[in-house]
Amino acid sequence: MDGGPRVPEQRHSGSPAQPDGSAALRFGVLGPVRAWRGGQALATGSPQQRALLAALLLREGRTATAAELIDALWGEEPPSQALAAVRTYASRLRKVLDPGVLVSESGGYAVRGLADGALDLSAAQDLAAGAEKARGAGDFAGARDALRDALALWDGEVLAGVPGPYAEGQRVRLEEWRLQLTETCLELDLEQGGHAEAVSELTALTAAHPLRERLRELLMLALYRSGRQAEALAVYADTRRLLADELGVDPRAGLQELQQRILRADPALAEPSTPAAGTAAPPVRPAQLPATVPDFTGRAPFVRELSDVLAAASGDGSGPGGRVMAVSALAGIGGVGKTTLAVHVAHRARAAFPDGQLYVDLQGAGARPAEPETVLGSFLRALGTADSAIPDSLEERAALYRSVLDGRRVLVLLDNARDAAQVRPLLPGTDGCAALVTARVRMVDLAGAHLVDLDVMSPEEALALFTRIVGEERVAAEREAALDVVGACGFLPLAIRIAASRLAARRTWTVSVLAAKLADERRRLDELQAGDLAVEATFELGYGQLEPAQARAFRLLGLADGPDISLAAAAAVLDLPARRTEDLLEALVDTSLLESAAPGRYRFHDLVRLYARACAERDEHPPTERGAALSRLLDFYLATAAGIYAMERPGDRLVDHLEQTESEALRFTDGSAALDWLYTEGQSLLASVRQSVGTDRLRRAVDLLWAAKDLVESGANARQYEATADAVCEAARLAGDRRTEGRARTTLTNVLLVTGRIRRAEEEASLALECAAWAEDVAAGSWAANDRGLISLHQHRYADGKDFFDRAIRGFSEAGNRAGEATTSFNLSRAHLAMGNVGKAVDIARDGLALLATLGRTVRLANGHYALAMALTEAGRHTEALGQYNDALTVFVNHRQRLWEGTTHFRIAEAHLAARRPPQAAQHAEQALAIGCIGGDRMRGNVLTLLGRSLAALGQADRARACWREALKLYEETGAHEAAAVRALLASVDAA
């Protein structure tokens, strides 16, 4: 790599060392000096003998004289028998190695005839050279992978345990080369948006190499791109002070310039630097526009108006460089053709936006519009941003999105928006970009937007559209009937398109037949003028052509909330086999009444869904079938979720206390596939629970919420889960169903604990416990008591916590729920630990782990390892504690418990700091910050406090101060008592 030392290549002479096909020799010097024949390790002798072997391996196959070898092994003070010793070592090695490998020549020795890749150092050089070539060609990902492979060949200290001045010189040189490779690899990580992950590694490296300015520079850049500007500047301050104290010099010019750019908030720092011309990887140019309809008709004035606005924004107008980013917002009733017009205009303008076009359906007409942060995540990925580089909050995503678009000419089409608040974060922020927005409402509060009100077509345009779809010959023969048809459609483009498409598909129909059908349908002209009912009337024609089984499927599937529905869930709704269900759904797709969202998944357009529900209310007989269909769907979700809960937690008897179901569940043999299902179905599952509020399905709904608690503990769907739990709690309270209310409040307590809202969690857990006691619900009462114990731990009421845990364990024991007993015992261990009973805490955690081990592989084993590790850390047994934490981490990762994974990294950091290993502590604390933790903002404050303490121990006082200030802000916002301790830390630093 650039600036790296020239690493010797092993020269080859003749054919490979093992022409007879036997195992070839391999050697390692990037660690202890070792040799293998195939997979068998060879004895390389004493340290001096290994020093001789290393000196020969590093000489590129050239001969080393006896004098050179003596100097390499002993330097200026060789023993009197040095020459004899060299010859003895060489003789011993020759016996171990293959014939012809260690040769005598001109009074010296050489290693010859090794196969390609036989020396790990040669392999590392080949990989580094390949990385340099890939980077020069713009293949940054390939270059990074090659460098990671090269660095993976190091196995501890180079030439470990090998004496002599030659070995010492090689160690220094190769360690420097390794650091240069590492720096280059991290540069490539930052080039590809991996700044969040890089912070952890860079923190550890700067602690290990505090005077290495390039590492400090990369750390500053990674922190800045992660939204941590104060810490980035603190790194500079720490570096300047360290260099002045240790070397009496200022930071180098590059580091000083980076500090100034961060202070200026230089926009170019917010994205990877542009590679040199001719070597850059081609930029990602999204082309997401839906296909324009080939029969687009009319709207000429609107097309010209919108095209002019886009031309001005792109720089094709009269201005020298375009104008401020332009927004055009199209408004009108559903079905008026807003999307069709916007897509048509966007395609015409593609050439003016060469850096790409983005598109999203914001689902604003539905009950649950798309979240702006979700859309921004999708847009950033489409623009080439790595998942790991996409921040969590809406504000950070919006800022990164604008930064990524800076300097580009991109058109953004935001379709079916709900309101201006949903749109604002999705707008580009710079010249050269433009946005087209469609919505049912006029966005008068969207500052600077060019507003367009789109009305129905004129009679001439409507007839022209109808003619293009149906055909000139058929319309010309029945022009008056055709005018009747478009008039019956209210000149609404969507209605006209649906009606004309049906007619075109039926060659035996005449236009008059279609006109008569429209005329007979519920005084269609009047209805089409009534807002959304106009769209409903147009769908009536397509619905009327369905076979009875297709019509039933259309009606019943439209009842289900959720963004889409899987084939298996649809089969449950229809109470039909999967194959028959698939035939019906595909038939509906063919008629354009249903969309195929993905293989095996289907969705309604929001307007079609409303129409399908109206049909169900009107046509479904008996009327009770509507409730029965939703009941079957809820049963399917509950049965499947309960099966996954049981698979994840063998021995947990919770599933025995859930409501009975009649629908058949999906069965999984693979835990990963089961979790895939749960997280894919999360939104639809929660929607089914919400739809059950106020019905006789409420008990099953709350049990489904309980069985799907992984949606919270994994960090997925937490917001929707909480809103759903709130709604179920209120419905159960109003219904006077104390059993259901208790369970609902237990689920709500869980999400409140995960998000760190302890005060409200205490209120809900107390009510849950009261309800469970009144209803004699042992399962809910035991979990509610466990939750009260956890809340007591948060509030430092450890004795109360112990009492609650003991109560929970008694309840689980009475119910035969051994997994519940074990899980709660881990929390009981934490209570004893907090009260100073360290030995008892260790014993309780070990007993709980032993109990769980008898039940099978369960995600709760991780909680046992976690609790035991906390106790061992307090006992000062840090090595054992770290082993337990690593076991916990493995289980949490395998079971996709993302927030627990982050929390475990925090605890590992605590253990390292307690063992006086601040570099490792800082590294794991950074990982906890990047992933997130159980406990919300309060726990984030804990992580920042710990990171600050680790950094302070490393002499990075300014960065520590930045962490503590952020932690203090979080503590003050959440009312956490830890604020006082952080104020004391800040005061101690300020006084130093």
Characteristic key phrases:
single chain; 992 residues; mainly alpha; 5-stranded parallel beta sheet; 3-stranded antiparallel beta sheet; 45 helices; 14 strands; globular; disordered N terminus
pLDDT averaged residue by residue: 85
Strands, count: 14
What's the overall geometry?
Answer: globular
Oligomeric organization of the protein chains: single chain
For the largest beta-sheet, the strand count, sense and barrel status come to:
5 strands, parallel
- What are the segments in which pLDDT stays under 50 over at least 5 consecutive residues? 1-17, 274-281, 316-324, 521-535
Helix- and strand-based class?
A: mainly alpha
**How many DSSP H or I helices?**
45
Strand order of the largest sheet: 8-9-10-7-11
Strand composition percent? 5-15%
Folded structure, characterized:
The protein has 992 residues and is mainly α. The chain is built from 45 helices and 14 strands. Strands 8-9-10-7-11 form a five-stranded parallel sheet, sandwiched between helices. A three-stranded antiparallel sheet has the order 1-2-3, with no helix packed on it. Strands 4-6-5 form a three-stranded antiparallel sheet. A hairpin with a 2-residue loop joins strand 2 (34-37) and strand 3 (40-42). The two termini are 43 Å apart.
Offer a concise description of the structure:
Helix content is 61%, strand content 6%. It is mainly alpha-helical and 992 residues long.
List the helices and strands and how they pair.
Elements: E1 25-28, E2 34-37, E3 40-42, H1 47-57, E4 64-65, H2 66-74, H3 82-96, E5 102-105, E6 108-111, H4 120-136, H5 140-151, H6 165-191, H7 195-208, H8 213-225, H9 229-246, H10 253-263, H11 300-314, E7 326-331, H12 338-348, E8 357-361, H13 372-382, H14 394-405, E9 411-417, H15 420-423, E10 434-439, E11 450-453, H16 459-470, H17 472-477, H18 479-488, H19 493-505, H20 511-520, H21 524-528, H22 533-544, H23 548-557, E12 565-566, H24 567-574, H25 578-590, E13 595-598, E14 601-603, H26 606-619, H27 624-648, H28 671-680, H29 682-691, H30 698-707, H31 710-713, H32 718-735, H33 738-754, H34 758-775, H35 778-794, H36 798-815, H37 818-834, H38 838-853, H39 860-874, H40 878-894, H41 898-914, H42 918-931, H43 936-953, H44 957-974, H45 979-991
Parallel strand pairs: 7-10, 7-11, 8-9, 9-10
Antiparallel strand pairs: 1-2, 2-3, 4-6, 5-6, 12-14, 13-14
Helix pairs in contact: 1-3, 4-5, 5-6, 6-8, 7-8, 7-42, 8-9, 8-10, 9-10, 9-44, 11-12, 13-14, 16-18, 16-19, 18-20, 19-22, 22-26, 23-25, 23-26, 24-25, 24-27, 27-28, 27-29, 27-30, 29-30, 29-32, 30-32, 30-33, 32-33, 33-34, 33-35, 34-35, 35-36, 35-37, 36-37, 37-38, 37-39, 38-39, 39-40, 40-41, ...
